[in-house]
Amino acid sequence: MSAPAQRYQVADRPPFNLTDLLLRWEVLLIALLVLVVAINGWATPNFLDFYNMTDATQVFSEKAILALAMALLIIAREIDLSVAAIIALASLAMGYCATQGFHAPVLICVGLGVGMLCGMLNGFLVTRLNAPSIALTIGTMSLYRGIARGVLKDQTYTQYPPDFQSFGQDYVTSSVPIYMSFLLFLVLAGVAALVLHAMPVGRKIMASGNNPVAARFSGVPVDRIRFLLFVASGLAAGLASVLLTARLGSTRPDIASGFELEAVTIVVLGGVSILGGSGTIGGVVLAAIVLGLVQFGLSLNNVTGIEISVMIGALLIGAIALPIIVRRLLGRSSTH
Amino acid sequence: MKSLLQQRETVLALIIVAMGVAVSFWAPNFLAVKNFVDIATDTSFLTMMALAQMTVILTRGIDLSVASTLACSGMAAALIGKADLALPALLLVFIGIAVGGVLGMLNGLLVAALGIPPIVVTLGTMLVFRGLTFMIAQGKWVHDYEMSSSFLALPNVPILGVPMLVWIALIVIALFYVFLSYTRTGRMLYAVGGNPLAARYVGISVARQQFIVYAISGAVAGLCGVLWVSHFGTATPDGAVSFELQVVAACVIGGVSVAGGVGTVAGAVLGTLFLGVIENALSLINGSSHWQMAIAGLAIVTAVIINARSERTVGKLILPEARRAALKGSAR
Amino acid sequence: MAAIRSTSPPDPQPLLTLRGIAKRFPGVVALDGVELSLYPGQVTALVGENGAGKSTLVKILTGLYVPDEGQIEVDGKEVTFASPREAWAAGITAIHQETVMFDDLSVAENIFMGHMPVAASGAVDWATIQARSKDLLKRIDADVAPTAPLRSLGVAQKHQVEIARALSHDSRIVIMDEPTAALSRHEIDDLYRIINQLKAEGRAILFISHKFDEIFAVADRWTVFRDGTHVGAGWIAEVDQATLVRLMVGRPVDQVFPKVPVKIGDEIMQVEGLSHPTEFDDISFTLRSGEILGFYGLVGAGRSEVMQALFGLTTPSRGRIRISGKSVLIRSPQDAIREGIAYVPEDRQMQGAVLPLGIRQNTTLAMVDKLTRGLFSAPTKERDVTRRLGQKLFVKAANWEQRLGDLSGGNQQKVVIAKWLATQPRILIVDEPTKGIDVGSKAAVHGFISELAAEGLAVILVSSELPEVMGMSDRIIVMQEGRIVAEVHRDRATPEAIVAAAAGLEGAHA
Predict the structure, then answer these.
(1) C231 touches chain A (CB under 8 A)
(2) Which class for A33: exposed (0-12), middle (13-18), buried (19 or more C-beta within 10 A)?
(3) The CATH fold of domain B2-330
(4) DSSP states of A16-40
(5) Does residue B202 sit at the C interface (CB-CB below 8 Å)?
(6) How confident is the model at residue A332 (pLDDT cuts 50, 70, 90)?
(7) Residue B163 near residue A335, CB atoms below 8 Å
């Protein structure tokens, strides 16, 4: 047999390279975070106040929870644009149950349940019937929110029991000044990180997103994984709905309007490639915090919601475009 | 004849006719000529935007910023018209198209020159352009009493009993048909979306094609923006919010494939007609349109599933008898 | 079929000249100082093993890659191709090994996409497109309608459309990259006729092939590439096959396929009447432990499709599979892996490997659930498996975390095989295992396969390379257009009979 005379010396791991580490997207986000805190701390009155900051976490935690599930889906080369509509539908269900006199435990179950069912429908249609997820979830988005609008018409549900509202509006316990939504976000971020980075299924998710054909050929149950991720996305939307409805204390048909796109923005800003196959939960968490603080700081400065969304749009494009431009400029200079 | 029936567009047209017949049982005034004119008028904007969106989707892209571009161009034209009421209406239309075109070219640059995925780019520009609209309007509306009467009349002038807006839409439909069937650039769009690698092999510049479609998308949104403002008589900073999703929905229902390379003018038009008939039927029957979104959503989901089933590869055609059968079935 | 041989003295002005062309990729030198000249009215054969740099050269000539060093001259003038469009404009077209066309468009549109004729008004001239397509297809004797959707054509017919496309453009330099892989004898003769016609029209043809009978039938000149450099050039009339082979391989040929005699065990798999609506029909065969069963056929004959059905990737419409006597139902790759079947697919990049991920992650992908500590992944166990198999297969890399896409084709293939060995299969199916890899790795892969058979594994070897199939297999099954047409034992196999059967010729059953 014609084989090489000696075995090749192959190291287990590449040598540690500081430049590679520093060029990672997560490090860029940390730098951005520091910058945001520094600028706001100097320019904005009351920014660094602890209680103000914890209040800020309330506003972005629900979206951040959506973003965690969305990140896993996008890494698997899918997307779920119906999450905000699922929030609306779950909120509708909870509002109806509240008018029938049910209290927090039932309401929470209903919210999660509706979210899960919606996610299952999305997952079934994408995996069993091979529907492209972007087009399909635009459809289910209209369907779910449409049902909410059709049932509610122009009304609003406001009869939520106090124990439910406290779930979204009060601290976890009176001695610990953290809101339930932020705590849940941190816990779920930990779970998501373990799933993606420390468990076999995370490897399979990465492979499915990088090359679904090769993954399937390698025995990875790509369809089953995608189905479960859609269910997770639905559950996340259900949880976000519980928290948001409890915080607002009301349900309107346009609740959580635009949340799906904000979630995608967090995910993309977090370094997850929209084409699938790469990204970290750490990046998504950092992006959620950065965006949350940016919005918080700007609102303290009396910048209007619209102007904030302009800056977020510009930030999104800038964050993606800048590395490409820099790479092009560097690339050009190295060949001459 | 059999193959004609198997064509997606024919099936969709038959479904629309069937829906119309069904609705007329509940609301006999559906079948009135005036009602058909109303449907045509109400769907004109969606039709033009859907055709433009189709060209973008053909190249495997998507343009989520169209509603914001529409609002921004309309607002710009309205503000300029308000500043000088003597300006001819046609000039304002050109200004709207120009503003939309420039915004579209920005999208095109980011997608074609920098290679950023279209969904990310247009997500960002959707927010930026909407914000731009608010900023130039300073949060305020432009009302009909601040617009010249010729401007307000432009889309509403009836010709042969049909408003000018519908005629403009018909012209746009014709232009897109010619563009996609009879120009090289139009045909190359199908190549770029169908197989980008093969398109490169035969010397097509994918970047150029992409830039062109986003510019077109922006220009059409600009045209619609101006007409929208003059048709409704108001320019609001939050005009046409979420309209981009209806536009994509119309395309999907009309058989345009999100994977690129597949889609016809007839399909896109029928897709918008479908949504238009539903909206019209609901308002005739119910007096309100609260369930419209849900029904539209159901239609989109159904269309996506049907699309997906027809695109599913049956398996390679290796056995000679299988190849012969396929050839017979697709002969036109 | 005799070719028109150029007997006049060589035209001093080559149409195309390459000098000192080099192209490097991270970790691999694809081309290093290559020289080539193409003359009008003459066919130059480019010969070389897989991985010798031929496809990189084609990509440079067609403008897809820009060379790192060297000059390209057309008609004596130096040119650079910044894009495929410029190569096209310079008169260079290529007919590719794997057809790269538009499935959703018609045949006529495929022929003219990128250079559609326009009428005076500027509109696309459909009438001319239809008429000229019809002419071109008739000229090459293709039984294809211009209006047919490309999707409905078979592999050979798609190739004919590609030829028509090359002819539709006034290309003076035509590159043919393994054009006969999917063609029957009759269609190959047609191709020779077309090539002669092109020569008579004064075009220069670059004919890339590793089939010597074709090279000697049609070429005027030859060039040999090995490991990225050209190692010789000259006139066909003045060279013989043995010299070409020696230049290609760089060492004596008989060591290339090490067939070790192996004691063949019991029947481990029986396939009965396996059928699919469009891909294959009534496939029945048996497989024994320690045996290497070769599956030969033209490209597109349906062999990979049969294997994919065995592996659970597609669902057959009827038929039965028995493993160790027990009837099994395989509905997914996980089922197949559980039954001890492993499938190394034909298309390494799309189906075999996840190139952006690392070696360790690829190697453990098919059995990562077994390498855990509780619920969590155990990277140390993964590294152990990767190291063991990587060393057994002599994988050359900087470290086990290295991105698989950075390795050479041969090493990528070894990692793919390692992934499947990690699942400890009883039946190993390898589909074109040495396609596109360098000579050294090719022999190594053959060696591993023989070794695995000796260890008791049952191997199915799907291959379109006759020497490989004949050298390695104990038995050879030949498929043609979705059916089995012959089954031959190694001792009674002759190349003529097998090739005839694969082409579907009458009375060809061996």
Answers:
(1) no
(2) middle
(3) ABC transporter involved in vitamin B12 uptake, BtuC (1.10.3470)
(4) P-HHHHHTSHHHHHHHHHHHHHHHH
(5) yes
(6) low
(7) no
| Residue A255, domain CATH | 1.10.3470.10
C414/chain B closest Cα distance in angstroms? 28
Task: With CB atoms and an 8 Å threshold, state whether C444 touches A202.
Answer: no
3-state helix, strand, coil in chain B (%, to 5): 75, 0, 20
Q: Measured between CB atoms, which of C365, C391, C450 is closest to A7?
A: C391
Q: Is the model's pLDDT at C510 over the cut of 50?
A: no
Fold held by C1-91+170-251? Rossmann fold (3.40.50)
Establish if A33 belongs to a structural domain: no
Among A10, A12, A210, select the one facing C354 at the smallest CB separation.
A210
Smallest Cβ–Cβ distance between C482 and the set B182, B203, B319 belongs to B319
Q: In whole angstroms, what is the distance from residue C199 CA to residue C202 CA?
A: 5
Please give the mean pLDDT across all residues of chain B.
88
How crowded is the C-beta side of C430, counted as CA atoms within 13 Å?
Answer: 31
C-alpha distance from residue A310 to each of A305, A318, B95, B130, C191 (Å): 9, 12, 23, 7, 61
Question: Is A143 within 8 Å of B298 when comparing Cβ atoms?
Answer: yes
Total domains in the fold of chain A: 1
Kindly give, in sequence order, each residue whose CB lies less than 8 Å from that of residue A175, ignoring residues fewer than 6 positions away.
Answer: none
Q: Does the pLDDT of residue C10 top 60, yes or no?
A: no
Nearest-by-CA chain C residue for A194: C376
pLDDT at C410: 79
Planar angle of CA C449, A214, C103, nearest 5 degrees = 110
Instruction: Please list, in sequence order, all residues whose beta carbon lies within 8 angstroms of the beta carbon of residue C12, skipping any fewer than 6 positions away.
Output: none
Q: What CATH number is given for C256-340+425-510 in this structure?
A: 3.40.50.300
Is A213 within 8 Å of C350 when comparing Cβ atoms? yes
**Alpha-carbon distance A328 to nearest alpha carbon in chain C (angstroms):** 17
Q: Is residue A312 part of a domain?
A: yes
Lowest mean pLDDT among A226-235, B86-95, C89-98: C89-98
The two structure tokens encoding residue B152: 């307000």
Q: Residue C241 is encoded by which pair of tokens?
A: 């096959």
Domain ranges of chain B: 2-330
Tell me: pLDDT of B312 over 70: no
Chain A: closest CA distance from residue B208 (Å):
19
Which residues 100-159 of chain B have a CB within 8 Å of chain A? 110, 114-117, 119-121, 123-128, 130-132, 134-135, 139
Residue numbers of the domain that contains A184:
48-316
Q: What pLDDT score was predicted for residue A6?
A: 54
| Residues of chain C numbered 116-155 and touching chain B (CB < 8 Å) | 116, 118, 122-124, 126, 145, 147-149, 151-154
**Residue C417 near chain A (CB below 8 Å):** no
State how far Cα B129 lies from the chain centre. 19
Answer yes or no: do B123 and A139 touch at CB < 8 A. no
Return the pLDDT at C493: 82
pLDDT digits (tens, 9 = 90+) for B236-292: 988 888 898 889 999 999 989 888 899 999 999 999 999 999 888 888 877 667 888
Nearby residues of C84 by Cβ (< 8 Å), 6 or more positions away: B200, B201, B202, B203, C62, C63, C64
Nearest CA in chain B to C150: B327
At residue B142, does pLDDT exceed 90? no
B7–chain C nearest CA distance, Å: 14
What are the boundaries of each domain within chain C?
1-91+170-251, 102-169, 256-340+425-510, 354-424
Under the banding of pLDDT at 50, 70 and 90, the label for residue A3 is: very low
Query: Does the beta-carbon distance from A132 to B309 stay under 8 Å?
Result: no
Cα separation, A91 vs A259, in Å, equals 14
State how far the Cα of B235 lies from the Cα of B238, in Å rounded to an integer: 9
In chain A, which residue's Cα lies nearest the Cα of C362?
A: A207
Q: Chains A and C: how many Cβ contacts under 8 Å?
A: 117
